[in-house]
Amino acid sequence: MIKRVWHGWTTPENADAYFRILTNEVIPGIEAKKMEGFRGIEVLRRELKIETEFCTVMTFETLDNIIALHGEDYERSYVPDAAQKVLSRWDQTAQHFEILEVRRYDA
Question: Is the pTM of this model over 0.85?
Answer without folding.
Answer: yes
